[in-house]
Design a protein that fits this description.
Number of helices: 29
Strand order of the largest sheet: 17-20-21-22-19-18-23
Radius of gyration: 28 Å
Structural class: alpha+beta
Strand content: 15-25%
Oligomer: single chain
Distance between the termini: 53 Å
Length: 800
């Protein structure tokens, strides 16, 4: 793994991957394709040790895969080198692998497009072996370790056990092959949905992160490639050392959601006598009431004390919006105030931000710049202001969102608070700069990143700021987004923002339709809906009821209206948050033109046999979604399936099949069998709803996040005409091919492939998702030019 950039201050030693398959015959490229294509992957692993398993994988899935990819059999000696630790030991040289891949690119530069399909198929075979075979073996091996904690094998991991390093290197090789293709999905940081995250599922790769003082839940939240994880493991510990062993789990970090009390600066000389300063509460409330923005200005008085002033601002004002997590100690649950030392710090870093261009956003907020220039007085004021000392204004929720808890007029203040929260999308979109304050990032001296943006990106990805839901909106809507380090504020580019899973840093300028005119972008660029979904799936929040507002604002809808959906419905019992959020999610979906088919593959979206879409978040095991794997047109009748990717998605029809949790299906007149794990459907629901005995399975070769299986969904066929089929959602499911030669206890049903689904362009499938009178069509938050706020109102009741 010589080619991976590692931080020079890494706690871990560099891993040299030994050559351990010298006793096994060479695997040619053709042999790899034959072995992987037949799905005969067993390798007699029943009584095979981890060491034997790793050696066979290195022979087939490292050397064999590389030969198949480049189209010629590469002698093993060409990619081996001597170890720098033990000269007698031969190890894999990934820099030599890079040389082979560059030579392949040079040979096929003129015919690259023709070769892309061939090598993409080879990569897909590697995905399948890693997903269905290697991951399954490692998960079973993990379970054995858990059963016997006394076994010294339970302490083995990537850095202590050769076999794990060998398997990890295979996954890194696959990363290298993807990078060689250099196609748009990988440039955008979009991971191939057909590939499982090895690191997120296997403890031997995941757990070493704890040594660096970071939480092991990072592997689950980030779903990183092995190359990204190796770079992240090399980052030195920074900031305060937190105990991640006591309360954190494999999927959630306790400290990210913890509300730390308001803290003083570590260098505060005043100590306990440091004053708390507050804004003008009346001014803050008046600004909120009049749809203005309360802004803060800090100046020094003649006595040397800091003075805080509340200023009435608007989207035309030049201000900096502060984006922070409460774990950093800048929150205050009791009152709108901060210590003087913290305000001095905020004032200094806001004043020290690099100069940025005027926002084009402001030109669309009512009148254009040319119209404003007609007002001579305004032009003169603008010119004069350039000669004056600039006034630095900032907005931070701790001071500018009223605190209602425990106040005598709590109900009244709560109204202001709710209104302020609903307008936060416009507020962050209108800011000249958005400044990110994260406790870990603020402890990093700029010398530690050594002008290498890859290290900075890794630090940002692992920060608490990237783990919270509200901060997604605050970062994605920013025109100029700065991250505060210990000694300076820095920006990263839009491509780097996508790599850290932060949607385009100018969300309001995002125009997918223009970009999709390019053939590459047409298939791979996510919509706003997908971008927001993928950004939220593994983030956490202390206020789940706020997530609908975040989602709505980022797809150009009114957060206020979304929060009102379902609240007054007689269909929903008081306090049933899940049902309210289901209605809110359906309202967001109803406002889209298209949504990805993958939304039906999400587990937990089934209540009493009906489709019940939930908002994404860390509480559910959501998977990322992309329109490339099939889209659904949103119509008043329901969701219409007309497009798909036939090489990745297919449909099966089975007759007389009961609703089971687990079963085996066999494709008619073939030896192909499918193992199905379905979400359970309550039998009580089946009695109240008419159920067809004919079932349709839509299956995609897309990975589940927590098992070596693929995603799909089961539907009941309610009506079938010549050119249209009407479906009712039953359950999400996971599926896998039954390997050839494997014995099964029983076949639960026969099925046939519905080829008409993809071959007939006029054929349609309508998914009926039920009726609901309280879902409304929503007006956009911004005009078509994506800039100007509008008055908001519901326009119609919908049939679903």
């Amino acid at each position: 793994m010589d080619h991976i950039d590692r931080h020079p201050s890494s706690f871990f030693p560099h891993i040299e991957v030994p050559y351990i398959c010298d006793h096994l015959p060479a695997c040619t490229g053709a042999e790899f394709v034959s072995w992987a294509g037949l799905r005969d992957w067993r390798l007699r692993t029943e009584n095979q040790s981890l060491e034997q398993f790793a050696a066979q994988l290195q022979a087939r899935l490292y050397f064999g895969l590389l030969s198949a990819f480049v189209g010629e059999d590469i002698p093993r000696g060409k990619i081996l080198r001597q170890s720098t630790i033990d000269p007698k030991l031969q190890v894999l040289g990934s820099l030599k692998v890079q040389d082979q891949l560059r030579a392949w690119e040079e040979r096929f530069r003129e015919h690259r497009d023709k070769k892309l399909t061939e090598v993409s198929n080879v990569l897909f075979l590697a995905y399948e072996v890693m997903n269905r075979f290697v991951l399954a073996y490692l998960l079973e091996h993990d379970q054995r370790k858990v059963k016997d904690q006394r076994d010294e094998a339970s302490e083995r991991n990537l850095f202590t056990e050769t076999s794990y390093a060998v398997i990890f290197a295979i996954d890194v090789l696959i990363d290298m092959l993807e990078a060689t293709l250099n196609t748009f999905p990988y440039r955008l940081g979009i991971k191939d949905g057909r590939r499982c995250c090895l690191v997120g599922n296997v403890s031997a790769f995941r757990d070493p992160i704890a040594v660096t003082g970071r939480c092991k839940s990072l592997a689950w939240r980030l779903q990183p490639t092995s190359t990204e994880w190796y770079c992240l493991l090399s980052l030195p510990p920074v900031g305060q050392r937190l105990d991640h062993q006591k309360y954190c789990t494999e999927q959630t970090c306790f400290h990210h959601g913890k509300k730390t009390p308001t803290l003083h600066r570590e260098d505060c000389e005043a100590g306990a006598s440091c004053r708390y300063l507050s804004p003008d509460d009346d001014m803050v409330q008046r600004c909120i009431l009049e749809d203005k923005i309360p802004l803060i200005s800090c100046t020094r008085g003649q006595n040397g004390h800091l003075r805080i002033e509340t200023v009435e601002g608007s989207l035309r004002s030049e201000y900096t919006a502060i984006s922070h997590v409460w774990a950093g100690g800048l929150g205050n649950e009791v009152e709108n105030s901060l210590p003087e030392c913290q305000l001095e710090y905020l004032m200094s870093i806001v004043e020290g931000l690099p100069r940025t261009r005027m926002r084009s956003f402001k030109e669309g907020l009512g009148s254009s710049w040319r119209e404003s220039a007609d007002n001579i007085a305004e032009v003169v004021d603008t010119l004069i202001s350039r000669w004056r000392k600039p006034r630095f204004l900032f907005w931070i929720d701790t001071l500018c969102i009223p605190v209602a808890k425990g106040k005598p007029n709590e109900t009244e203040v709560a109204v202001y608070k709710s209104r302020a929260i609903a307008s936060m999308a416009q507020l962050y979109a209108g800011a000249k700069n958005v400044l990110v304050l994260d406790p870990e990032l603020q402890s990093i001296p700029s010398s530690l990143i050594q002008d290498n943006k890859k290290f900075l990106v890794s630090f940002i990805k692992s920060s608490a700021w990237m783990g919270r839901s509200w901060t997604l909106q605050e970062g994605a809507l920013a025109e100029n987004l700065f991250y505060r380090l210990e000694d300076r504020s820095v920006q990263i580019g839009e491509l780097s923002s996508r790599v850290i899973n932060l949607p385009t840093v100018r969300m309001l300028d995002f125009d997918s339709e223009k970009l999709k005119k390019h053939s590459y972008w047409k298939y791979w660029l996510p919509s706003k809906f997908s971008d927001v979904w993928n950004g939220l799936i593994n983030r956490s929040t202390g206020q789940p009821k706020d997530v609908p507002a975040i989602f709505a604002a980022m797809v150009n809808l009114s957060a206020d209206e979304i929060l009102g959906v379902g609240q007054q419905s007689s269909e929903i019992s008081t306090g049933n948050v899940e049902m309210v959020q289901e209605m809110q999610m359906k309202a967001i979906i109803r406002a889209q033109a298209k949504i990805p088919l993958q939304i039906f593959y999400q587990h937990g979206f089934n209540r009493n046999g009906a489709w019940s879409p939930q908002l994404p978040g860390s509480r559910l095991k959501n998977t990322s979604i992309n329109e490339f794997y099939g889209t659904l047109q949103v119509t008043e009748e329901g969701l219409l399936l007309k497009e798909g990717a036939p090489w990745d998605t297919f449909a099966l029809v089975a007759e007389g099949l009961p609703l089971l949790d687990r079963y085996i299906l066999q494709l008619q007149d073939t030896a192909v069998m499918y193992r199905i794990h379905s979400e359970p459907v309550k039998q009580a629901a089946l009695k109240s709803e008419p159920h067809s005995s004919n079932s349709l399975f839509i299956l995609s070769k897309l990975c589940c996040v927590d098992s070596p299986m693929c995603q799909g969904a089961r539907f009941s066929i309610m009506q079938r005409k010549e050119k249209r089929i009407t479906l009712k959602f039953d359950a999400a499911l996971a599926w896998a091919y039954v390997p050839l030669g494997e014995e099964v206890d029983a076949i639960d049903g026969k099925c046939e492939e519905l080829l008409q689904f993809w071959q007939d362009t006029d054929f349609e499938a309508l998914i009926d998702v039920g009726k609901s009178s309280c879902i409304t069509t929503l007006a956009p938050l911004f005009h078509d030019n994506h800039r100007c706020p509008t008055s908001l109102h519901s326009t119609a009741n919908l049939p679903w």
